[in-house]
Automatic annotation (TrEMBL):
Single annotated GO MF: hydrolase activity
Pfam families the record matches: M20_dimer (PF07687), Peptidase_M20 (PF01546)
InterPro entries documented for this protein: ArgE/DapE_CS (IPR001261), Bact_exopeptidase_dim_dom (IPR036264), Peptidase_M20 (IPR002933), Peptidase_M20_dimer (IPR011650), Peptidase_M20A (IPR050072)
Keywords: Hydrolase, Metal-binding, Zinc
PANTHER family the record matches: ACETYLORNITHINE DEACETYLASE (PTHR43808), PEPTIDASE M20 DIMERISATION DOMAIN-CONTAINING PROTEIN (PTHR43808:SF8)
Cofactors (names): Zn(2+)
Family from the record: Belongs to the peptidase M20A family.
Residue ranges occupied by any Peptidase M20 dimerisation domain in the UniProt entry: 212-310
Domain of life: Archaea
Source organism: Halocatena marina
Name recorded for this polypeptide: M20 family metallopeptidase
Length: 418
């Protein structure tokens, strides 16, 4: 901790000091090691859910399991973990703290145990260490410190540790919205790793104030089967899908002052077989990251214009990936830099690190889009950085995990103090 920021008064400074003194660096990193050593790919979070619940329960924080279910597409059933600290002021804002418990599937290229939690040179290694068990550990210890310190908060703090952020639909965060768990929340802090996935070249301490959105095209191309020795007698759906994939990358995407440019990336072409037949059907998946102002209608129309221009012999159906509901999608958002949440976190960063935070915007999507766009909550990402996210050799900087715990706790006090 550094000297208090000149932007806070003596009472808030004393409250921040009381809370942050409750955060022990060694205990925070020990907790992170325990989290990393639990295997928790998306859809397989039962063990880590139990761990987070028991950790909160052992500290008298009254956690609850919140059922998450999606029976129709993926058949998933699991649980989020939620807890609440009640403030004293009925008109004060309620702050949401969010992190996800899952990781991507374990990557085979690791040259060591991908769940080792090994620490070397200030780096803690393991699948999900940075994305985002470092951030999860940060909000766990921050939430405990807020509860244990002898301070009064005017506003509530809602803790949520969710499942399936890395999966296809963000089912955990979606369920929070569906079941009105966040209906009374006014602002949100998500402790995803920020700078490493920001569109700008920035370093921590940093506040990420927005993110691009995303559509996933699911396109069907239908040609005409024929014998493979006479391809001219049929219409090859794979060939036409390949032409379409290439042409879609030339679409003029939108641009935004904070979020930058949109992007288009073909992800998968699936069709045909080894039998000697001209492929009749082909499926094409295309990622399109969008900025504010790019709607579903515009995205569809852009693709349809490309199809019309190509004048393919195949029939093309422009669609989007199936989702649990029409609103389950990642919309873009920007949080105003002048919002009180940003001010509170800026003050917290200066108090904890002595530096002013860099300001950035996320290049991709995550649960924060659901809070910032769907739930319309001013949402800020503040998380520990690292490298090799989703890959072999993933690590998180341990000092930044501790800093994030301090920043989140101090930010809560700065925003919600009575």
């Amino acid at each position: 901790m550094t000297d208090p920021s000149p932007n806070i008064d003596a009472a808030d400074s004393a409250a921040i000091d009381a809370v942050t003194k409750r955060i022990d660096a060694e205990e925070t990193i020990s907790l992170l090691q325990e989290l990393v050593r639990i295997r928790s790919p998306y859809f397989e979070e039962a063990e880590i859910t139990t761990f987070v619940y028991d950790w909160l329960d052992a500290r008298g924080l009254d956690p609850e399991l919140h059922q998450v279910t999606e029976p129709d597409i993926v058949g998933f059933e699991g649980n989020n973990v939620i807890a609440r600290l009640s403030g004293s002021g009925p008109d004060a804002p309620t702050l949401l703290l969010n992190a996800h418990m899952d990781t991507v599937q374990l990557v085979e290229a690791w040259e060591e145990d991908p769940l080792s939690g090994r620490i070397e040179d200030g780096k803690l290694y393991g699948q999900g260490a940075c994305d985002m068990k470092g951030g999860l550990a940060g909000i766990m210890v921050a939430f405990e410190a807020l509860a244990a310190a002898d301070i009064e908060l005017a506003g509530d703090v809602v803790f949520t540790a969710v499942v399936d952020e890395e999966g296809p639909y963000g089912l955990g965060a979606n369920q929070l919205i569906r079941d009105d768990i966040v209906a009374d929340c006014d602002v949100a802090i998500v402790t995803e790793p920020g700078p490493t996935l920001a569109r700008e070249d920035i370093e921590n301490p940093a506040l990420i104030l927005g993110a691009r959105g995303r559509f996933l095209h699911d396109i069907t191309v239908t040609g005409e089967a024929a014998h493979g020795s006479q391809p001219q007698t049929g219409t090859n759906a794979v060939v036409d899908a390949s032409r379409l994939a290439d042409a879609l990358t030339d679409i003029e995407v939108g641009s935004h002052e904070q979020l930058g440019d949109g992007s288009i990336c073909p992800l998968k072409i699936e069709g045909g077989s080894e039998t000697l037949s001209v492929p009749e059907h082909c499926r094409l998946l295309v990622d399109r990251h969008i900025v504010i102002g790019e709607t579903e209608d515009r995205v569809r129309a852009d693709a349809e214009r490309v199809v019309e221009r190509l004048d393919l012999d195949s029939t093309v159906d422009i669609g989007f990936r199936e989702a649990p509901a029409a609103d389950v999608r990642y919309g873009p958002y920007v949080t105003d830099a002048d919002h009180p949440l940003v001010g509170a976190l800026s003050t917290a960063v200066e108090t904890v690190t002595g530096d002013e935070p860099a300001i950035g915007y996320f290049a991709s999507v995550g649960d924060f889009n659901y809070f910032g766009h769907r739930a319309e909550l001013p949402t800020v990402i503040v998380g520990p950085d690292g490298e090799n996210i989703h890959g072999a050799g993933e690590f998180v900087y341990t000092d930044e995990v501790v800093d994030v715990a301090h920043i989140v706790a101090a930010g809560c006090v700065s925003l919600l103090s009575a």
